[in-house]
Amino acid sequence: MSIISRIASRSFLQLKRPGMVPRVASTVPHFQINQSRSYSSRPVDNPNAAQRRPKVSIKTIQSLYRKKEAISMMTAQDYPSGLVVDQSGIDMCLVGDSLAMVSLGFDSTNPLTVEDMLHHCRAVARGAKAPFIVADLPYGSYEASPDDAVRVSLRFMKEGNCDAVKLEGGVEMAETIHRITRIGIPVLAHIGLTPQRQSALGGFRVQGKTAKQASALLKDAFAVQEAGAFGVVLEAIPAEIAGYITQQLKIPTIGIGAGVHCSGQVLVQNDALGLFDKFVPKFTKQYCNLNQIITSALREYHEDVKTGRFPAPQNTYPIDPAQLEKFYAMERERTGIHHSQQEHEEEDRTVHATML
């Protein structure tokens, strides 16, 4: 029995007093009582909820790569965004530090702390049950030493319920990647435009546009592969360079602004769904504009409240008319006694005044 049912039953027993005869007033509204449900919410008609798929593992990712089947990856930052990634059949879910900008309103990804990211990872993991979940290691948590990187990676696996971690950097991070993977934690590398280092790069700028830069990117890619990364994100790189790097490697490449020849693609969910209000990256395909849709819905709600259209009868909870009349009778009895006492007190004061 639900809490509401128990309260209703207890209230009914308390109201059922000897000598109290229910009297139904004509003003009492009559509601149709639904006896089949005792809970205070209605079921959600979601056909995707019943569709369960096997958990995507690192073996699944490697199998997709061998079969040359494109790998889909999308970011998420909380339970609802993780849930829709799960229900849409996407292979990998990235809890990206981009959430600092698109969800928390910062101007860059760098302010995020380890505790912030762990909080978001746990929320995403509760929604994204099937996708392979990768967590960005936040800026400042892993660069100082491989030991720091190992410790924080263990936290993301143990406390964040993630399947892998992602870190930015190429040749200079090879030892760190090696140390992390050596203890059994999968690492997704990230080269090209590395947002955590955007200050050193002069902003969010395309990388690999010169022969020298492209050659350096190829060295970075080889270095992270040899260090043990299971894949590498290529961000904001000319499509030809990204395609060539993909051909040279033996691990998947995940492109974001790197053309169609990568092994897979990733986008920031808020960008793809039109929820970020500041800018839309050139490499983003906006599949809808949820900002407009949600704003329109909230305006309609605002007007419904102002005009009294909400809540409607179907949005309210009914009460048995007999119980409602008993409540009114109790109130009439209570307020009648109260008024009588007030009248006696007033008479006493009048008598006392005349005696003076």
CATH architecture annotation of the largest domain: Alpha-Beta Barrel
Strand order of the largest sheet: 1-2-3-4-5-6-7-8
CATH class division of the largest domain = Alpha Beta
SSE order, one letter for each helix or strand = HHEHEHHEHEHEHHEHEEHHH
Figure out the total of helices. 13
Going by CATH, what is the homologous superfamily of the largest domain? Phosphoenolpyruvate-binding domains
What is the total number of structural domains?
A: 2
CATH topology of the largest domain: TIM Barrel
Question: Key terms for this structure?
Answer:
TIM Barrel, 13 helices, 11% strand, single chain, disordered N terminus, 8 strands, eight-stranded parallel β-barrel, 356 residues, alpha/beta
If you had to describe this structure to a student in words, what would you say it looks like?
- Keywords: Pantothenate biosynthesis, Transferase.
- It comes from Mucor lusitanicus CBS 277.49.
- The protein has 356 residues and is α/β, with parallel strands linked by helices.
- It has two domains: 58-284, TIM Barrel (Alpha-Beta Barrel), CATH 3.20.20.60; 290-315.
- 45% of the residues lie in helices and 11% in strands.
- The chain contains 13 helices and eight strands.
- The protein has an eight-stranded parallel barrel, surrounded by seven helices.
- Helix 7 (174-182) runs parallel beside helix 9 (211-227).
- It is elongated.
- The N and C termini lie far apart (64 Å).
